Input
Amino acid sequence: MDPKQTVSRNGDEESQNESFDYTTRAQWLRAAVLGANDGLVSTASLMVGVGAVKKDVKEMILTGFAGLVAGACSMAIGEFVMDQNEKDEEKLPNPLQAAIASALAFSVGAMVPLLAASFVRDYKVRVGVVVAAVTMALAFFGWFGAFLGGAPVFRASFRVLVGGWFAMAITFGLTKWMASIGF
Output
């Protein structure tokens, strides 16, 4: 079914009076997936970066938690300001609702590496578990985002996965390098 098609409550095509525009729901879901993906990648990258130079689980978890809070606040503020500035558009959501949804989506993604690291004490295993958990979540978010957007699923999932790996690898490598030169 075309997402823009007019559909009544009982599933039959009908007049505009009892219609629901499915593109609005798809936009919200896609924005939520992208927000969760942002939380996942940025928090995991921070944690893996700290894990490159610090072996203590508390430092890694605190870094991830700070990333979750800062990122969720940043996403919420950005969404609120953007939607507040464009509130004359008739299909935009309530700015406060959009801000809360954005912060929650970011937080859901950020919880994946936090939870993965929370139960592993050994430094090398912990970094590996974080990368493995994030890899599975990236593949899922890539697939789900592609599914919602009608994009080729394999190609989109692969791009999301490689992008996440790239972000974690760069953060790990540059943090390790900074520590090696005395910072």
In short: The longest helix spans residues 22-51.
